[in-house]
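Researcher: Excuse me, tokens okay?
***
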Amino acid sequence: MTTPDTAGGSRPRVRMTGAQRRQQLLDVGRELFAQRGYEATSIEEIATRADVSKPVVYEHFGGKEGLYAVVVDREMQRLLDRFTSTLSSGGHPRELLERAALVLLEYIEDETDGFRVLTRDSPIATSGTFSSLISEVARKVEHILAAQFSTNGYDPRAAELYSQALVGMVALVGQWWLESRTPGKRQVAAHLVNLAYNGLAHLETRPQLVGPPRPAPDPR
């Protein structure tokens, strides 16, 4: 089968296996969803970019929603695998925190389109969102913190709160760094660890707010 080229001739259409075509459509969808967002991306544009007809996209994914959901789930797993690999190897808590910060920054650097897709507000119901990914990573960090808290006399039940705070901080800084890309990723990670670890090193065993309670607002 041939398709006309812009010079008036023809070029052969690339024949792919079903698996290859599915992968191609995922890559095209990922790029367009990152650039334009879900709403501004059309099935027509996806098909044109992949050099296929619209029915081919429907055949593989059932439509734009199906393609988007698979793209998001795939990126979630990619990033989660990176975190799992680096946190499962053990080490000093500070070293683990450094690795976790670098994992996210390296993912942003290597897979920018994927991170843009993950951090956009999802317009449809998918099995995974960026917030659920952060919660999953925080659960892994929680086990590390709980062990450290128990060893140092802190309440291990607070590990869940602190893990959410730490991972959330790294994730928000990552979203900021996505656009600025300065300073370099190692310097960003060093500042994150400086704030997080040095703060953790001086935790109070029973922290309390020092200010007086604020009066309740007048319901009138």
The chain has nine helices and two strands.
